[in-house]
Amino acid sequence: MCSQGDVVSTSIYGIWDGKVHDFRNAPQGMPPPVLEGLEDFAPHNPTKAFIADRGFMVFDRETSLVEAFRAYMAQAAKESCGRCTPCRVGTQRMRDLLREVAANQADPGVLDDIAELARQVTDTSLCGMGQSCARSLLDALEHFRDEFKPLTPAQAVFQHSFVYTTAPCVEACPSKIDVPKYIDGVKGGKFDYALGVILDKYPMAATCGRVCVRFCESACRRQEAEGPVGIRMLKRYAADQAILNNRLHFQPSPVQHDKRVAIIGAGPAGITCAYKLLLGGIKVDVFDAQRAAGGMASVGIPSYRLPKDVLKAESEDIIRQLGGNFFYSKVLGENFTVDELLGKGYDAVFLAYGASQGTRFGIKNEYPGLNRYITGVDFLLKVHQRVEHDVPFEVKGDVVVVGGGNVAMDCVRSALRLGAKSVHLVYRRTEEDMPAEREEVIAAQHEGVIFHFLTTPTGLMVENNTVTALEMVEMQTKGRDEKGRWNIEPVPDSMYTMPCDLVVAAIGQQVERNVVKPGEGIELDRWNCIVVNADTLETTRKGVFAGGDCVLGPLTLVHALDQGERAAASIRDFLLSGDVYVRPERRIQNLLSKNKLLADECLEVAPPHKDRAVMPELDAAERVKNFDEVDQVISKQSAYEEASRCLRCYRLYSVVTEKHLPREPLISNNETVLAE
């Protein structure tokens, strides 16, 4: 068993992590700590109870415990995959017996029957959902059986349950995509179904299946066994089946609203927002400074990792099929302003421009206009223009790239493919501290990149406005910081120079200034990012929303996908009802994050050993000669075997409130978007 963190709030009675709390007969003000932020979960809608796999808590003496657990078990029965009898039959039977108790129609001894069913489901189910869904019910029957009473007329009217299904991998994903569900689809050979689960969130399934940084795999409980499930490769497999078989076709929504939205930026956030709005019948125009859709995913990720035809199919092609329009080479702040867009009749604006400006070192002899010196962002843009548009860009001689993230890895691997004689990667910390994905580091090493760890630049050697060498100093470790990384300091008298023909500063990106004009009523922070409501993505100007890098700074593609989807929900609320509200899913996600309810999830019993699938790839000696995609598609059999490694670690969380929680998802029918 693993330890759980402390949690804080108040309750009247319940059980949490095996500890019984009973203050039903105590004076007011004495309840014990339980969950932070639960009592005020929804404004003007009192929380009456909370149920999870770790226990339950009741906050209102008039709450019907039997009805709360009936709703909880009804969701468990709905989520059961049906592959094992205890979970498939047991959850339905418990739901039905609890309904009989609530209706005062139960036979004597029914609570004993429910307890026995709960015990069997917990002990014999094959997946995490079945093993966890009846634990708190069993505890409640053991310690608070007297609260399992028939439902009163008042309770039937003033008690409503919202049950949220999630898993450690789901909560780790910024987009909160239902990972076990699409893995179930792959395991069952239902690839369109698996893809439909992803398309219900965002359109870039094959793109994300290639370049996502895989927060989900870091949270996978199988990590404690022989390694996490290959979630990203399964997402890619499901998406590629549709693309390869030409089945990714969309039709405009049959419902059309007389509303228009301007979206600024055709990157992942803007494309996802447009996609969800168009599915909901709202007209969309997309403006972008580049010549094609994709944003930094297009210009900043080389083709050997993300083929541009895949990106185009999941961005521009889908949006046009759904009825959206694109206006390219249009720069906000130069060709138009937010004021002008609203003045032209757009009912709302979504700002989704990226962090497209590179960061410089800030070292000796560094100044604008130097020859043979470039930022990582600008370098990758030139690589993109050469590979995709035949714009001349020559790389030769000895190249030095400074940085430790994925952008730096893209730069060194691209420089090799463009003909550099040698490519050096300079990083000021240790290899284990590199933020780049481990697979990218290994791939670069296999391709011949020379790594210099614990080394940092201190100055540029310049002759006739041209960089000739990089001045560097060696570093040494000295203890670890609060994040577990090594603290570093310069090694005395270790300075040296490295002659080179090109220096690439791949140390970060930032949002460009002067995009949003002063006086437009849109607040910016000190990093020039747009200030928004974290839940609704509303800016300080009514009708203007923002998301992606221009809000978060240079984060990941999947963060941008999430922001695009959430912005679309808020924009649709604003356009169709005049108001924006926070959905209950978002409230529960915030609650789980604040109390770290899934952070300590661990394996109690190791599963049978199953090796993780290996992604086939092109040979290193051959792939450095071109920009062909390196990672290849796994086989159907490998996809099935990898999907079978999923432990289906679903958890259910139920919040019982006095009134219904508003829940109106965007129109999306993932069963019909795929061509027959």
From TrEMBL:
The regions listed as transmembrane in this protein's record are: none
Q: Which PROSITE patterns does this chain map to?
A: COMPLEX1_51K_2 (PS00645)
GO MF term list = 4 iron, 4 sulfur cluster binding; FMN binding; NADH dehydrogenase (ubiquinone) activity; oxidoreductase activity
Domain NADH-ubiquinone oxidoreductase 51kDa subunit iron-sulphur binding: start-end pairs: 66-111
Which Pfam family is an annotated match for this chain, by its short name?
Pyr_redox_2
Entry-linked InterPro entries: DPD_II (IPR028261), FAD/NAD-bd_sf (IPR036188), FAD/NAD-binding_dom (IPR023753), Helical_ferredxn (IPR009051), NADH-UbQ_OxRdtase_51kDa_CS (IPR001949), Nuop51_4Fe4S-bd (IPR019575), Nuop51_4Fe4S-bd_sf (IPR037207)
What is this protein called in UniProt?
A: Formate dehydrogenase beta subunit
